[in-house]
Design brief:
By secondary structure, the chain is α/β, with parallel strands linked by helices. The chain contains 14 helices and 18 strands. Bound molecules: iron/sulfur cluster. Iron/sulfur cluster binds next to helix 7.
Length: about 475
């Protein structure tokens, strides 16, 4: 029996798909990349762009035609707006929230599929014992931090966090995503996530630490903690759970304890909830990567207010100051929306100023498009497509200039990089620095993929650099 998965959207959906894959495997299904061969086909959907939703409708229309000729079960999960959910119920065999993924075998049984009893949870003794696993320390946390035990939380077994205990089948042998939090309470006016993923729910820190430690022991080199709003981690269980900075600190200590080379990233933080202690922990622990993705969205306070971001540029500047002050070598990435409803020329110019002032290493710039379900969908989309494109091009040009300033400083220095695969340039491998700057170097040695190597940079464009493989010890770079 075979299954096929279509995964749309962000890293959280990728991570969810890794848990779906474990369940499929335990039920006896093998993955096929050819949807025509599959007995079960699923989509992990994304509602951030209309294009992604259109793709779901196109796919299910095609699959439903196949059902006239052969047996096929279809399912959809992921980020789905309530209106789409109702429509999907008529089109897919199964529509479910990822929070109840562990119920999937039962749902299939009800559909008439003969599914054996399976166990797909992270086991308690998979390579960790009480000496190596810091779980024991965590059990004592209630005493030290005055926290109440999590199981005393009302409805603690009922909030979907159990689904995270499904042992994932990671898509990579050296890079992994670890969900720490799901949902969002922020209600940015352009965003539908709070309506698709619901309110913020934090995964128990003990479980996160266990998964991270297992990955470290297995030799993973890059681990990304995932959540819609990671630095409000624990706030939904205030008094019962540790904060994001404490979680990061525990992870930093685990990596120190194992003495391995690992880069731990997190995405995405929200400037409103960002505290200085998070930056201090990043600076203190070698294993916490010196890279931060801090979405600014706009450089204008009035636009930020209409976006309901609940910070202003002064507050945002303060965070940048902490980062530059405590980790001068850190890279800073951001997200920016151009052409938001009502954005004037002057407000756009403020965004340009902010981008030039903070000199980002990378900015993911998006032209605003209203999302059904989000508050701003009701507002006028009054900036023409032509003007949005112009603002996008102008900002991209500004970004190219500020980013190049950083990458120019890399030339002549040697960096430790993580090799991720073959580069588009033939005969080259592609890697990235701790700061996630792409580096390519000439090599046909595929055994380097998944490993750290040292590369001396010989030339650089704004967002990537080219270098040569070297054996020597890495210098401490000024900026990467
Ligand atoms: S913080 Fe804002 S943009 Fe991010 S998921 Fe929540 S509502 Fe969406």
């Amino acid at each position: 029996m075979k299954y096929h998965l279509v995964v749309l959207g962000c890293q959280m959906n990728q991570s969810d798909s890794e848990r779906v894959s474990r369940i499929m495997l335990e039920m006896g299904y093998v993955l096929t990349n050819n949807e025509q061969d599959a007995d079960i086909i699923g989509i992990i959907a994304c509602s951030v762009r209309q294009k992604a939703i259109d793709k779901v409708y196109a796919k299910i229309a095609k699959w439903n035609k196949w059902k006239n000729k052969r047996s096929l079960i279809t399912f959809v999960s992921g980020c789905i707006l309530p209106d789409d959910q109702i429509k999907f119920l008529k089109l897919f065999d199964l529509v479910f929230d990822m929070k109840i993924i562990e119920e999937f075998p039962r749902m299939l049984r009800e559909y008439g599929v003969n599914i054996p009893n399976v166990n797909f949870y992270l086991s308690d003794n998979d390579g960790l014992n009480s000496d190596t696993y810091s779980y024991n320390d965590d059990n004592k946390k209630s005493v030290f931090l005055n926290l109440k035990p999590l199981d005393a939380l009302p409805e603690s077994n009922d909030d979907g966090t159990q689904a995270w205990n499904v042992d994932p089948i990671y898509n990579s042998t050296f890079e992994a995503f670890v969900p720490i939090q799901n949902g969002c309470n922020k209600f940015c006016t352009y965003c539908a996530v709070p309506y698709t993923r619901g309110r913020e729910v934090s995964r128990p820190s003990d479980h996160i630490i266990k998964e991270v430690e297992l990955l470290v022991i297995k030799g993973y080199k890059s681990i990304t903690l995932l959540g819609q709003n990671v630095n409000s981690y624990g706030l939904d269980k205030k008094g019962y759970e540790i904060s994001f900075s404490m979680l990061l600190e525990k992870i930093g200590k685990i990596i120190d304890k194992h003495g391995k080379d690992v880069w731990v990233y997190y995405t995405s933080p929200h400037p409103r909830d960002m505290t200085k202690d998070v930056v201090e922990v990043m600076a203190r622990y070698k294993g916490i990567a010196k890279q931060i993705h801090l979405p600014v969205q706009s450089g204008d306070d009035e636009v930020l207010m209409r976006m309901n971001r609940k910070y202003n540029i002064d507050k945002y500047s303060e965070i940048i100051k902490w980062v530059r002050g405590l980790m001068p070598q850190a890279t800073i990435f951001t997200d920016i929306i151009v052409g938001f409803s009502g954005e004037t020329d002057e407000q756009f110019e403020n965004t340009r100023k902010v981008l030039r002032k903070f000199e980002y290493n990378m900015a993911y710039i998006a032209m605003y498009s209203p999302r059904p379900g989000a508050k701003s969908f009701e507002w006028s989309d009054d900036i023409s497509h032509v003007e949005k494109k112009r603002r996008y091009a102008v900002l991209t040009e500004d970004l190219t200039i500020v980013a190049q300033k950083w990458t120019d400083q890399m030339v002549g220095k040697t960096y430790q990089v993580l090799v991720r695969g073959n580069d588009r340039k033939e005969g080259y491998l592609s890697a990235h620095t701790e700061g996630k700057i792409i580096v390519r170097f000439e090599s046909d040695d595929n055994s380097l993929i998944g490993n750290f190597v040292n590369v001396k940079i010989v030339s650089a464009g704004p967002f990537s650099a080219e270098g040569v493989l070297v054996e020597k010890t890495v210098e401490i770079p000024v900026s990467n």
